[in-house]
Amino acid sequence: MDGLSVPMHGFRVLTGTGNRGLAESIAGQLGVDLCKATINRFADGEVFVRIDENVRGADVFIVQPTNPPAENILELLLLIDAVRRASAARITCVMPYFGYGRQDRKDQPRVAIGAKLMARMIETAGADRVLGLDFHAHQLQGFFDLPVDHLYAAPVFTAHYRKKQLQNLVVVAPDVGSAKMARGFAKRLNGSLAIIDKRRPKANVAEVVNVVGEVEGMDCLIPDDMIDTAGTVSEAARALKALGAKDIYVCATHALLSGPARERLAAAPITEVAVTNSIMIPEERRFPQLCVLSVGELLAKAIRFTHADQSVSSLFE
Q1: Each residue of 42-66: pLDDT tens digit?
Q2: 3-state secondary structure of 242
Q3: Within 13 A of 65's CA, how many CA atoms are on the CB side?
Q4: By the 8 A CB rule, do 317 and 16 touch?
Q5: pLDDT at residue 314, rounded to an integer
């Protein structure tokens, strides 16, 4: 069944300021207007939220990523609380990007497990279920004690690269942990697989040690879940180019593009960097090779299926 043909009644879509453009795209795909809400700041910066429409008994979907600044997570929590107190029937937290997802374990003494804390805060605020996109680690679904639908942006990327009709393609996993994801891309795009052996001496610093697989004279695709400071992909691109790779493509669901990321990617031997609009990308962080793909239709279909109590996994069959 086409996800956009499911009838919609008694539901609302609303958003904070984290990524209003994506929320408007989702609402447009669903053929509805965003639920009116007032989000202001007091003089001291405190966040104020008010729902300006009746949501009593409604199935409410709140679209808000939780990337920095911290106001994004606060807006999400306050929106959930306001909708719950307005007697909504069900509240689904739609997180195109789950910020703090990298803090998923205690790998150093005396550190917080931020991802678990965020999950508990969302539950306590009153969410009934979560709809997420490409979590940093799949086990993050278990941090929530409520239903989680975990979506993948892979269909959006594979459709994009199929249009390019790339020949002699090798999909390069940026690290061993990404090998399963890279293998999935290779299968869908009829490519071979290579893996980069890297080490990370400290946070946001990556060094390529070796490339396992044949890349000489081949087009390379490096998929990842996010690009933060772009140290990994820029070093990987240089290593692949040194080994005789042809055109190098990079794709990542979440474009954080922090610090020197823009300069690194612009200077790297990369033909194209394809990302999604899960995170709003300001003009000052954009660069010539950047290609932004929309996940609005994907999330809209997931919202339709969720509202109609149909299987969301059918989106990936």
Answers
A1: 999 999 999 999 999 999 999 999 9
A2: helix
A3: 28
A4: no
A5: 78
CB count in 10 Å sphere of residue 113:
15
From 3.90.320.10, 3.30.450.20, 3.40.50.2020, 1.20.120.80, which CATH number describes the 3-151+296-316 domain?
3.40.50.2020
pLDDT in the model for residue 109: 94
Provide the 8-state DSSP code for 101.
T
CATH of domain 154-293: 3.40.50.2020
At residue 203, the pLDDT reads 59
The residue among 48, 54, 53 whose CA lies nearest residue 79 is 48
- In sequence order, the β-bridge partners of residue 198 are 208
Residues paired with 193 in a beta bridge: 171
Return residue ranges of the chain for CATH 3.40.50.2020: 3-151+296-316, 154-293
pLDDT at 206: 56
Q: What angle do CA 47, 50, 56 make, to 5 degrees?
A: 140
Indicate the burial class of 177 (C-beta count within 10 angstroms; 0-12, 13-18, 19 or more): exposed
> Is-contact 136 272, C-beta < 8 A?
no
Are the C-beta atoms of residues 92 and 62 closer than 8 Å to each other?
Answer: yes
Q: What whole-number distance in Å separates Cα of residue 203 and Cα of residue 139?
A: 21
How many other C-beta atoms can be found within 10 angstroms of the C-beta atom of residue 10? 12
**With a cut of 70, which residues of the chain have pLDDT below it?**
1-9, 198-209, 317
Residues annotated catalytic, as ranges: 198
pLDDT for res 1: 44
Q: What is the predicted pLDDT for the residue at 277? A: 98
Measured from the Cβ of residue 147, the count of other Cβ atoms closer than 10 Å reads: 13
Cα-based distances in Å from 71 to 52, 59, 120: 20, 25, 17
Can you tell me the distance from the alpha carbon of 273 to that of 233, in angstroms, rounded to the nearest whole number?
10
Q: Strand 169-173 vs strand 148-151: parallel, antiparallel, or unpaired?
A: unpaired
φ, ψ of residue 187 to 5 degrees: the values are: -65, -45
**In the block, residue with structure tokens 């920095």:** 68
